[in-house]
Amino acid sequence: MPPSSRMTPQGPPMGPPGYGSSPVSRPGMPSVMDPSRKRPAPQQIQQVQQQRNQHTKKKKMADKILPQRIRELVPESQAYMDLLAFERKLDQTIMRKRLDIQEALKRPIKQKRKLRIFISNTFNPAKPDAEDGDGTVASWELRVEGRLLEDTAVSKYEATKQKRKFSSFFKSLVIELDKDLYGPDNHLVEWHRTATTQETDGFQVKRPGDVGVRCTVLLMLDYQVNTHLLLLLLLLLLSC
Q: Which of 69-75's residues contact partners 24+ apart within 8 Å by CB, and which partners?
């Protein structure tokens, strides 16, 4: 054989799998993964498990029922059938109470109480000083206060709790004075709740003047209701 000529190898390429021209496919296996075959979602898996559990429960209940022939041969088996009927009734009651609890937890607990509001004003007359000529001008002060009236039916636990401040019942307060007397920039007194608001027992406004002033007080309630979920849950469970 001449030295310049080389022998061309015959047959499939040698070497470890993966280095050849095409991957090795096993018989019976698809060469490409079917894109329609996907892993089921967790929600679908949960639904399938619930259906299986319901089917198993129904099957167990059917297995517990005694055949008519056995009930005729053993008269005492009627007590067993009565227990099965009581078990079904108990399961229905528990399921109904569970649904009632879920619905009740969605609704806030409402409690009717009376909030007494006191609005008062104080007039401070002018005090002229004859010696040095310095004196005080006439002024008035308006106070808006309030408190929650005590309820005779309140439990001892509620009575020992710390009383809420007057401002905690409102999200904003606006006092509008006479615009002709105090001008467009000084006739409104506003208070609005913020994240750093410190609660108070009342609001006061002080202005100079010695004549009667018409005032309009606007109070906007804060409807954030605290729900005692654990207490309600315990109450419904005890009533089962």
A: none
